[in-house]
């Protein structure tokens, strides 16, 4: 974040990899922080990506609340890096999609750059901004007056009409399937076709159903153009088509009906929230293909469940169908189906609470009553998932990977030390709160980040059991004295404390005497140590905590370290 002209500008600069001296300037589209995301990771030249965020809001890179000094500030930033790198204007490539495409055209023509890569740009930026989410107020000003709309609508037409230097290399991407082609892009064409090297790519595909998908569908060619330009090569394509809208209807229907008939379904967990109060699982679950003689819009109604299986017994929870955009990108098979209702969400906390202890495989069950289809497939996760939560002395663990998703329910109070190192530093009442913190780690398993393990405090009484989450903090100075000589593991976060710095609130714990245990859940292991006894009284401020470990534990740890050191010295 640096100030240029009147504005603080947020940007990202990546220097060239080796001898690749050009500069690529990227403008972002609506909703993206930096344009083209990770797709530009293979670009070898210097890359300057500029975020459209000025004084807290977007500007279209043209005007922020009708203050047109934004563009001069951005140009000052570009010039700073261009001159710092010793580059001429002819070595700069401007690129962007949608809003970023409009900016690439605007800056190239206003400030004299020759290379433009613009996908699906808007021509009438005032009309597009008006009423379009946050753009309207931020770009057009308070109330979005029509006179401001008209003024911004004239920006690109005027600069195209006024520019006389036609020696430029312009690469424009659009699609007839994009509603903005007729509303915006066609208005660029008469002026742009006058330039010496104008290239127009019409992206076509039956899978194009949204504006943003044009850039995604044409991305390979967009990147090839950017790669060429940033290496000093200027390609000439003319006006060409990428892909086709032609579909063999009979072949598509046959293939999609065959997919439907196969004994399979999609079952993918993409997100999970797990707390003592709530468990929400969401993802994709649907039957592939389309029923014979039916198009996708007619749609067979599918119902969905999550099924947990252990020892040939099953527990099920109903899942709601939810719409998901662009599922075809993940599940495209020869012919296009959007699977717009292919998502699910399931509230499973109650199910988890009623499960007996054990390990469960999770399945997605998808049924279509009208087709007499009832299929169950293992649930999987594209990216590894590990969620843990505990209440009432029991922990629920949800783990998923590309092969399976499993739920484990287990008794926190049944675990033992299992080779873990434990030292209680504090266990005392301070008013109505219990202050508890100390060291707990497993030698050989790194505790090098706050998420390495999940810690719990469990209070077990005659009539009830209560579990609260603790948190891991970095206290290397406190952990190091408990490491065995010769252990070079990283255990800096092997220190637990209460989530609230004031301690654990016991307001909801009924009066009584409780045994307190500290547990650490990590990987597939569960390790627990007794911490003390707690007498919760009606007057919470008079409650008493008595340690039954801590000092002796520390002494035994030190003694063990000393004995190990003496043995090594003796051997030497």
From TrEMBL:
InterPro entries, alphabetized: AB_hydrolase_fold
Gene3D superfamilies found in the cross-reference section: alpha/beta hydrolase (3.40.50.1820)
Protein name: Uncharacterized protein
């Amino acid at each position: 974040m640096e100030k240029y002209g009147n504005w603080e500008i947020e940007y990202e600069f990546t220097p060239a990899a080796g001898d690749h001296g050009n500069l690529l300037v990227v403008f972002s589209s609506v909703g993206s922080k930096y344009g083209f995301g990770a797709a530009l990771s293979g670009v070898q030249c210097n890359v300057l990506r500029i975020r459209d965020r000025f004084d807290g809001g977007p500007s279209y890179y043209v005007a922020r609340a009708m203050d047109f000094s934004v563009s001069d500030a951005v140009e000052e930033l570009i010039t700073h890096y261009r001159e710092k790198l010793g580059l001429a204007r002819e070595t700069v490539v401007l690129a962007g999609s949608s809003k970023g495409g409009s900016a690439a055209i605007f800056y190239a023509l206003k400030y004299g750059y020759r290379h433009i890569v613009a996908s699906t740009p808007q021509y009438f930026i005032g009309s597009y901004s008006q009423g379009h989410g946050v753009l309207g107020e931020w770009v057009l000003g308070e109330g979005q007056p029509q006179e401001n709309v008209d003024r911004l609508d004239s920006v690109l037409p005027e600069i195209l009409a006024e520019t006389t230097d036609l020696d430029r290399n312009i690469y424009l991407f659009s699609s007839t399937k994009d509603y903005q082609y007729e509303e915006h892009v066609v208005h660029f064409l008469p002026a742009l076709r006058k330039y010496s090297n104008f290239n127009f790519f019409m992206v076509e595909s039956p899978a194009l159903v949204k504006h943003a998908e044009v850039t995604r569908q044409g991305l390979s060619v967009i990147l090839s153009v950017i790669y060429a330009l940033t290496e000093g090569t200027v390609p000439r394509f003319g006006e060409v088509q990428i892909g086709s809208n032609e579909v063999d209807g009979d072949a598509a229907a046959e293939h999609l009906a065959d997919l439907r008939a196969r004994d399979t379904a999609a079952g993918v967990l993409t997100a999970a929230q797990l707390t003592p109060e709530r468990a929400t699982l969401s993802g994709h679950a649907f039957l592939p293909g389309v029923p014979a003689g039916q198009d996708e819009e007619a749609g067979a109604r599918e119902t969905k469940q999550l099924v947990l299986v252990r020892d040939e017994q099953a527990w099920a929870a109903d899942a709601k169908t939810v719409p998901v955009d662009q599922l075809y990108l993940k599940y495209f098979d020869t012919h296009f189906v959007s699977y717009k209702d292919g998502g699910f969400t399931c509230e499973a906390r109650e199910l988890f609470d009623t499960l007996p202890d054990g390990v469960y495989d999770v399945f997605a069950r998808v049924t279509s009553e009208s087709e007499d289809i009832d299929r169950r497939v293992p649930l999987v996760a594209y990216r590894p998932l590990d969620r843990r939560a505990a209440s009432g002395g029991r922990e629920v663990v949800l783990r998923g990977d590309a092969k399976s998703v499993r739920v484990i329910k287990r008794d926190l109070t049944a675990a033992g030390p299992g080779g873990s190192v434990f030292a209680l530093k504090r266990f005392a009442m301070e008013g109505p709160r219990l202050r508890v913190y100390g060291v707990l780690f497993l030698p050989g398993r790194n505790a090098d980040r706050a998420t390495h393990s999940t810690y719990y405090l469990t209070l077990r009484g005659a009539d009830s059991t209560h579990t609260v989450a603790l948190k891991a903090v970095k206290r290397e100075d406190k952990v190091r004295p408990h490491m065995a000589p010769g252990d070079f593991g990283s255990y800096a976060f092997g220190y637990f404390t209460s989530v609230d710095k004031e301690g654990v609130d016991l307001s909801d714990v009924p009066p009584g005497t409780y045994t307190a245990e500290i547990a650490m859940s990590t990987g597939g292991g569960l390790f627990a140590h007794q911490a003390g006894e707690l007498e919760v009284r009606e007057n919470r401020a008079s409650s008493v905590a008595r340690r039954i470990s801590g000092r002796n534990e520390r002494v035994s740890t030190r003694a063990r370290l000393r004995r190990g050191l003496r043995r090594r010295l003796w051997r030497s």
